[in-house]
Amino acid sequence: MVPHNDAIEGEARPAATLLMLRDGRPGPQVFMVKRHGLSDVLGGAHVFPGGKVDREDAQDALAGRTDCHPDALHAALGEPQLEAPAAAGLYVAALREAFEETGVLFAHGAQAAEAARASALLREGRSFGEVLALLDLQLQASALVPWSRWITPLVGGVIRKRFDTRFFVAAMPAGQQAVHDNHEATEGTWLSARQALQQYWDGHMELAPPQIMSLVHLARHASVQDLMDEARRRAPPVIQPEAFVQDEVRVLCYPGDTRHSVAGRALPGPTRLYYRNRRFEPAGGFAALFD
Fold first, then answer.
1. Domain boundaries in the chain?
2. pTM for the whole structure
3. Residue-level pLDDT at 36
4. Phi-psi region of 133 (alpha: psi -120 to 50; beta: other; left: phi over 0)
5. What are the E-state strand segments in 103-222?
6. Nearest to 217 by CA among 126, 287, 148
7. pLDDT score for 174
8. Which residues contact 228 (CB under 8 A, 6 or more apart)?
9. Strands 145-151 and 249-253, how do they pair?
């Protein structure tokens, strides 16, 4: 995954992604999917389920299918400049994308049988809203906690599209199983943060910088509950990486780095990643991801 030097014009498109979590040994595990190699966005990379917000996601019909009023979701997201329907649409998009890519349905009372019926209806060509209405399901938006917000850099990123992506975290619902969809994703696996980063370091997995840094953050937590509690205590950090070249090496830096325009640190772990050895890595090597 090679960074480019092109300047990207236009506004960043709203998107949402979901870190589905379960407790494991050692520490929390997250479900990751490998994007189809022909995808024009992070093809071949391992990512958390997610994608851009669809027009339907922010419509009243779907907002009415959540267990929280749009105003409550708006308040939890912590972005006063957004309208409440747009904020609710981000939650819906994260829930929809998780369902489409993994078959996991965050809905009250939904077990494996309900998720399977919903998946079958989706394969028939029904929209997400139609599926929920036909099965009379209420989306469990309350299960999602805002985690971070990543905005594609204007220059020096790894994709030539701009996204404004809200990352959410949620505990895996009981009675269901996550599987990849064999369409947008060709593999799916549960990994601890350290396992995923080790596979990346060893060249067995491709990761984009937002996933690397999110895993670095996840690795600081001993349990899903610990992570969820921390997420609820603070506002989601906003991260727009900034790129520069140092000694002919491309570098992405993050808030708190001496070269970044935002002085306050937003994330644990390194404040910059160097693109060398055909990967993004901190100055101090693998161990520096966990310092």
1. 13-290
2. 0.94
3. 67
4. alpha
5. 145-151, 163-171, 185-192
6. 148
7. 92
8. 21, 145, 169, 171
9. unpaired
pLDDT given for residue 183 in this prediction: 72
Cα angle value 99/90/42 (rounded, 5°): 65
Q: Which fold is adopted by the domain 13-290?
A: Nucleoside Triphosphate Pyrophosphohydrolase (3.90.79)
**Tokens (6 digits) for 49:** 């389920």
Name the nearest CA neighbour of 57 among 19, 15, 110, 29.
15
CB proximity list for 51: less than 8 A, separation 6 or greater: 15, 16, 17, 93, 97, 101, 184
CA–CA distance, 211 with 244 (Å, rounded to integer):
20
pLDDT in tens, 82-105: 999 999 999 999 999 999 999 999
Q: How confident is the model at residue 4 (pLDDT cuts 50, 70, 90)?
A: low
Q: Are 99 and 181 in contact (CB under 8 A)?
A: no
